[in-house]
Amino acid sequence: MTPPTPGGRNDDDAAPRAASVAGGRGVFFLGFWLLIAGYHPADLPIGLLAAAAATAASLRLLPAARGRLRLLALVAFTLQFLRQSAVAGIDVARRAFDARLPLRPGFVVCPCHLRSAGSRGAFCTVSALLPGTLPAGFDETGALLVHCLDTGQPVAASLAEEEARFSRVIGHD
């Protein structure tokens, strides 16, 4: 048994239980199957097999991690993301319709502090949804390269705030 961490929990306690992770994913995939295929009792065995196969594949491709989704942080992140998306969308529309507004397209280097490749990829996916910016990959130091419409805007600072909120959502703060 491992010694308790400063929070008083053992590492064994903090590790996700494989059965509960598999069960949660299985329920998700079965629900997704039912959403797409509809509920017909005759099709349920095929749905169960598809959910089991998807669960096995997901556990193989994306093993359970220690991070934990925080619901309140997710709600706050979503509300802030929607607000920021609307503001950025209006800015992009203004730039498209007003030739006097500056367009200085280019790349901005944004340090990324997320640890795992999965969380970094998920953050890139979420940040790609914001109008006016597009993550283009990582440089040799691990910093995120972001293409933006106006390099004069505080893109790096804005993405650092988004990354901090995203990190709280997935429990990596």
Distance between the termini: 26 Å
Which structural class fits the helix and strand makeup? Answer: mainly alpha
Rg:
21 Å
Report the portion of residues in β strands: 5-15%
Tally of structural domains: 2
* Share in helix: 40-55%
The overall pLDDT, averaged over residues, is: 84
What form results from the Cα inertia axes? elongated
Number of strands: 3
Total of DSSP H or I helical runs spanning 4+ residues: 6
Unreliable spans: 5-9
Strands in their spatial order, largest beta sheet:
1-3-2
Short summary of the structure?
With 173 residues, the protein is mostly helical. 55% of the residues lie in helices and 9% in strands.
